[in-house]
Specification:
β3 (52-56) and β4 (64-67) form a beta hairpin. The protein is built from ten helices and five strands; from the N terminus they run ββαβββααααααααα. It has three domains: 8-81, Roll (Ubiquitin-like (UB roll)), CATH 3.10.20; 101-183, Alpha-helical ferredoxin (Fumarate Reductase Iron-sulfur Protein, Chain B, domain 2), CATH 1.10.1060.10; 188-225, no CATH class. The chain has 232 residues and is an alpha+beta fold. It binds FE2/S2 (inorganic) cluster. FE2/S2 (inorganic) cluster is lined by residues 41-44, 46-51, 67-69, 153.
Length: 232
């Protein structure tokens, strides 16, 4: 027989105490407590970086950070959502901003304040090597920055903890844009596909998709995934 008993645990959301079922993520606990998330909530799958959260577990002096959609609550956890961190974000015209040390230091002079403490790496919910890509940025190894930061979700938690007040995620974003715009050779396949789109090659297919019921699209998607899985 199924056991339907739900264990409730206390959580403290922005100073207010609620009882929520054990095993929920912070995001689901917030919603269970009655919060309607219009900010700080996006993909719900650990991809968009919208749900940065600060929390402290019972009995621990250390503040921790994580994504609300990926972090599970514990009894007596203190939670504070951080849907936006006011990090420095440089303004630039990417077409004329070429990747060189002068441009990067001019846009983000605080880069030189990095003291190599590794706090950024420890606070990254995606477990990226943030300090290593910042070191690569200082050394001018831009391809390494791209490689190490590609999965950044721009949640801002690295900036929230950096004692030198860098915004590593924004610095990496600038470098990825510069490299993409100025260093990587344009892909001939992409150019060809764009031409095909312009010529209307996919119009019929797109039109068909737009007029398909959501349930039918879901079914097709699952069939496609199953075919892909079977061919791996
Ligand atoms: S909601 Fe997108 S990462 Fe959490």
């Amino acid at each position: 027989m199924q056991n339907d008993i739900i264990t409730l645990i206390p959580v403290i959301v922005m100073g207010k105490r609620y009882e929520v079922p054990h095993g929920l993520t912070i995001m689901k606990a917030l919603e269970y407590a009655g919060y309607q998330l219009t900010r700080g909530c996006g993909c719900r799958g650990g991809v968009c970086g919208a749900c940065a959260t600060i929390y402290r577990k019972k009995g621990q002096y250390r503040l921790q950070v994580g994504l609300a959609c990926q972090t599970v609550v514990e009894a007596d956890i203190y939670i504070l959502q951080l849907p936006f961190f006011p990090a420095n974000k440089a303004l630039y015209e990417i077409n004329t901003t070429i990747p060189d040390d002068l441009n990067i230091i001019k846009l983000y002079p605080e880069l030189l304040r990095c003291m190599g403490c590794n706090t950024c790496t420890n606070s990254c919910p995606m477990e990226l090597e943030v300090m290593n890509y910042i070191s690569a940025a200082i050394a001018g190894n831009y391809e390494t920055v791209v490689e190490l930061s590609m999965e950044c979700v721009a949640c801002g938690l690295c900036a929230a903890r950096c004692p030198a007040e860098l915004a590593p995620f924004n610095i990496a974003l600038l470098i990825r844009r510069m490299v993409g715009k100025h260093l990587i050779q344009p892909s001939p396949q992409l150019a060809q596909r764009l031409e095909e789109i312009k010529a209307g090659k996919y119009e019929k297919e797109l039109h068909g998709l737009k007029n398909t019921a959501p349930g039918e699209i879901e079914k097709k998607y699952k069939e496609l995934q199953a075919t892909k899985g079977a061919s791996v």
